[in-house]
Design goal:
The structure is a homodimer of 339-residue chains. Chain A is of the alpha/beta class and 339 residues long. Chain A has two domains: 55 residues, Nicotinate-nucleotide-dimethylbenzimidazole phosphoribosyltransferase (CobT), small domain (5,6-Dimethylbenzimidazole Phosphoribosyltransferase, Chain: A, domain 1), CATH 1.10.1610; 270 residues, 3-Layer(aba) Sandwich (Rossmann fold), CATH 3.40.50. Helix content of chain A is 50%, strand content 9%. Chain A is built from 15 helices and six strands. In chain A, strands 3-2-1-4-5-6 form a six-stranded parallel beta sheet, with helices on both faces. Chain A is globular, with a radius of gyration of 20 Å. Chain A starts with a helix and ends with a helix.
Chain lengths: 339, 339
């Protein structure tokens, strides 16, 4: 990011027609948007796009979710038909929704309207072996980056991350523990309404996976992502890398996209400057993300659905932060104004 | 509000294609919107309007602000010319902005584009006498109600409250103390960047005003509003009453609109059900508002500008909460979906 543009935005804010600092976090965000765009004022994002990455997880075999894996494909169909929560919110904020299947379990073809980038049918069980090979992981990253780059070529100026995948909060917890050093018990939550006993089991599964991964002795960021993550995490890493490369902000949603953010920043630390935490996850892991991204999430509405719902709700805040820098009169203008 | 529609919304949410409760506060808000509209699903607000009530304050003579009173009229001119923070945010969320002058100090005519509803040139000094007569207060309430009713007749389906007025955080602190029983020191803040010494003086002014009001022995809600409030508070009470009467949600901004909300609810307790707290005020008084409105504010971005900025930023959240209830598929739909 561009520290000069950041400083210019801070200076500009100090001269706008308001008490200095009175727009609070909107001023911080505006300065970050200037740094991301490498210019001040930053452009006002007008074409946001949500990328929903979908995949299934071998770790489902460990009993970490109450939901059958078929729900992943059913939710993909719901999103592409426009009936998911994320579609309702996307209509509200004027975002397009792109669904990318990077590895759901399915017998038949990928439905119309879903971008087919399937690397394999679900990951392997991360509790017993690496979830992906390094090649599979790289292929999924490239798929996400390709989708994002095509969107940007088509005019997208704000990327929003989302996901669908039964079992993916288990893989996310493993990534949070691996990338932050936290104890699995502190970053593993109840996901889609798991009860307390099953959540304790989920913690054990994550602990087993981390021990297995540590014993393998390959702890580079790509190895960790491949070993413990999901295909959707890898695809979202690609989205984040592509957004950063194009100097476009990427809004992070909850714990799953947050786990992808940790992997992306581990792979390329400069990506952190391009990520905006949209919503604080209700999952315990998600609450650790701000420490890595440098600022707390914009929203905290107790959402724990994923899909990109929390990130989409933050889109108008990003637009407003940029527009304030573009549109507002200065204190000098106001003192010249007739009264 | 309609408890049956509220219960219907809760039931509808439980059957939508997501884990129960996973949309968190968006579900709570959606149920409240159903209760407000007296139907489920509630309509999705498509025509939000911000009413910015402007007035000056006799208590300015006590040295409670660093800003000269001329800034009120200058800020009114800035809002009507489109260069204020609130205009930038209104463009982002698609809201119209209506500026109502209910009592600024000005020598010349009210500028073009400003609705002229001036009751008097500023209030009296609330530290030494009632700020308004009961008649003046009623006239300002009626002006706000009239503006809101005309907007609603013209298609406005979501009211947003804002204000401009140098000195109005002092009157707001007095209203908060009077309506909540809080000590002035606990509800009086630094307003537009007052330093610590001046803030302590501001607390003393509020304390003097409360003692004067208590000694007068007329503690009904209208008497309290007239004695301690501003003309913009009264006008905003009118906006809130008109919104509630038309079964339309009214979004509250920060400490000034929050003080008006306390007065409105004191005058007509059922109005509380129609108010949505948009943004937590950075002023200490504002942090007490959720106790009265029954739920915390939707946003907490450390804004302390007023004008309606925080309330406007909450508009997409209100729209999304309604749209989720309107647009989402049910769990039954999803299980029937091809996978």
């Amino acid at each position: 990011v561009d520290r000069t543009a950041y400083a210019q935005a801070r200076e500009r804010h100090a001269g706008l027609a308001k008490p200095p600092g009175s727009l609070g976090r909107l001023e911080d965000l505006g300065a970050r948007l200037a740094a991301i765009a490498h210019r001040c004022p930053p452009p006002v994002p007008s074409s946001p796009a949500l990328v929903v990455a979908a995949a299934d997880h071998g770790v489902h075999a460990q009993g970490v979710s109450d939901w059958p894996q078929e729900v992943t494909a059913a939710m993909v169909a719901t999103v592409v038909s426009g009936g998911a929560a994320v579609n309702a919110i996307a209509r509200t904020v004027g975002a397009q929704v792109v669904v990318v299947d990077v590895g759901t379990l399915r017998l038949g073809p990928v439905p119309d309207g879903v971008r087919d980038e399937r690397v394999r049918s679900a990951t392997r069980d991360l509790a017993v072996e690496p979830a992906m090979t390094l090649d599979e992981c790289r292929t999924a990253i490239r798929a996400g980056a390709r989708v994002a780059a095509e969107l940007i070529d088509g005019g997208t100026d704000l990327l929003v991350t989302g996901e669908v995948g039964i079992g993916n909060t288990t893989a996310s917890a493993a990534l949070f523990a691996a990338f932050t050093g936290a104890d699995p018990a502190d970053v593993t939550g109840k996901g889609a309404n798991l009860d307390d006993g099953r959540t304790a089991h989920k913690v054990d599964v994550v602990r087993t996976a981390l021990a297995r991964h540590a014993a393998a002795g390959r702890s580079g960021p790509l190895e960790t992502l491949a070993s413990l993550g999901g295909l959707e995490h890898a695809a979202l890493v690609g989205v984040m890398l592509a957004g950063a490369a194009a100097r476009i902000p990427v809004v992070v949603d909850g714990v799953v996209t947050g786990a992808a953010a940790l992997a992306a920043v581990a792979l390329a630390p400069e990506v952190a400057g391009y990520l905006v935490a949209g919503h604080t996850s209700a999952e315990p892991g998600g609450r650790r993300l701000p420490d890595r991204l440098g600022e707390p999430a914009l929203l905290d509405l107790s959402l724990r659905l994923g899909e990109g719902t929390g990130a989409l709700l933050a889109v108008p805040l990003v637009q407003a932060a940029a527009r304030v820098l573009t549109d507002m009169a200065t204190l000098a203008d106001v003192t010249r104004a007739p009264s």
